[in-house]
Amino acid sequence: MKYLETYLNKIKARGNVQLAESISRTAEDVGNAHIKNFSFVSHEIGLLFGNVQSGKTGQMFGILCKAADMGFSAFVLLTTDNVVLQEQTLERVKSDLDGFCICGENDSGLFIENCLKEPAIVVLKKNTRILRLWANVFSTTGFMKGNPLFIIDDEADAASLNTLVNKNRQSTINKHLDTIKNGAASSLYLQVTGTPQSIFLQTNASGWYPLFTYYFKPGNGYLGGDFFFPKNGTPDCVTFIDGLKTPEREIILRHLLVSAQIMLSGETVCNCLIHPSTRVAVHQSYADKIAKELNWCRDNLTGAFADELKKLYAVLNPTKSEKKPFSEILVHAQNIVSSNEAKIIIMNGKHDIDSGEYDSGCNFIIGGNVLGRGVTFPRLQTIYYTRSSKKPQADTMWQHSRMFGYDRDPGMMMIFIEERLYKLFADINATNNAIIAQVEQGIDDVKIYYSEGLNPTRKNVLDNDHVAAISGGTNYYPFDPDNDTIDEISELLKPFTDGEPYYQVSLRVIKEILNHIKASPDFQLQSFQSILDVMLAEKPGEQGILIVRRNRDVAQGTGALLSPNDWQLGDSFPRKVVLTMYQVTGRKGWGGKQLWVPNIKLPEGMMYYDVLEEED
């Protein structure tokens, strides 16, 4: 049986020809580059990277089918520790994939009875009891000792990584996953996520850094980071709440207006998401605020409510349907309010909510962490985001971006948010684009940077001894450097005379100069070079500042290398990479010889992260 062809034909039969083409491209690329050459005696790990809510499940299924076509017969599909999500995934596997023996968490007997006569897919959530059970099943099943295991870990940056790495111990979930993947004769472990920050900051020694990364582009009609958080300016779909006197009323009016337009156009659902905090009490407080404003609407249906709705109607710009007359929209919005059709739904640990509760009607959904990974809200048109943290994490914030997706009307999207929070999201999007650029250009050693105060991920999965944070705006130079040959550097720097205070140069020139430096361990030369690669991947023509000074009688180990004037000169370029090259005389240390000493300063306001591997 041709598993990939069968799967693609099923998608095409549903009318999703473009989706089938995208999945085919991903499956063939990954299959030919990474599965085709698999040795069937090794344990390898890779990463499938896609935008949040851009269709990763279909891409995963395509790769799984391609692997089955190429000789894999045992598959484990991991979900987050969520009963509903695991069951939804299992049902989707059953409906989408033909010719497989499909097993749920309680189907160990079926798995053993099948004995790999048909390729088997086991759908498990990342739960200690479940993983321990199936680790035992795999280890006691004789046919697994001679067959490869293909593991697909959806949301691989959640729960899978070792959260006890800094305590020299292994967290339980991570240990069970290790046991499962290493217990087979061989394994290919595919991490899947839209937020790979923590994965790219793993060490090779951890066993969780991917040997390969594949990024798949979102399809047509996808609204993602660049739509909501573009490089220049603030889009029309964003309203800053800093100056709003009654933000909840503004949000309700906007959502009722959009709901009326959508439902009059033949759709059945329109959702508004409110994300204020992780605290249950705060969720209830916002639910009370929404209820209060809905009561105000009900009390003023033909007066202030109609007047305010008309103001918002003037700037409504639907793109997926014809704009309905205001008279029709007003009547429909009034009916929603007067008949209590607008539902207030709280989603958190104390409220067990099924997706059926928000797949129709006009809904206001309020919650915290549960609104993140794996949860999809159809026709989500309005977002009210006020959640803040003293130490915000980029991957967690990005997973809260439920506004991303395909079924939104771009002309009626609206995010209500504080300006400072919007800036954080914009910074995360810029780094995401830099990560994508590195992956697309084939850079294996992906580097990550964020504005100060924004952490890439939770600290408990990063090895403190090997993850370095380099601060922008700080001057770095090596205490005991060497040059491969001083003559080569002198020739390279010959065009740059001492007569000019500085030169604007390509970052490629700065990178070439650094290639001739032999740095001491205190100066992370490789990290600086990798950071320059990141900047060049995003902007190939990026410029920096080069300052060259010769015959400097500077003492080694006195603290600052630069003179006060050169220090001040470098600081006058806060948004540029500044490389200052001092040719020291060697009369005051430096091994008693002339050599070139580099001082580098990265753009200020940023933190650059790098993984320092142990040398052999």
Features:
616 residues, 6-stranded parallel β-sheet, 36% helix, 7-stranded parallel β-sheet, 23 strands, 19 helices, alpha/beta
* Average pLDDT for all residues: 92
The dominant shape is globular
Secondary-structure-based class equals alpha/beta
Sequence of strands across the biggest β-sheet: 3-4-2-5-6-1-7
Tell me the radius of gyration. Answer: 28 Å
Low-pLDDT residue spans: none
Strand content: 15-25%
Helix content: 25-40%
Q: Count the strands?
A: 23
For the biggest sheet, the summary is: 7 strands, parallel
Terminus-to-terminus distance: 47 Å
Task: Kindly describe this structure.
This protein is α/β, with parallel strands linked by helices and 616 residues long. Helix content is 36%, strand content 20%. It has 19 helices and 23 strands. The chain has a seven-stranded parallel β-sheet with strand order 3-4-2-5-6-1-7, sandwiched between helices. The chain has a six-stranded parallel β-sheet with strand order 8-13-12-9-11-10. Helix 2 crosses helix 3 and helix 10 packs across helix 13. The longest helix is centred in the last third of the chain and has 22 residues, at 419-440. The mean pLDDT is 92.
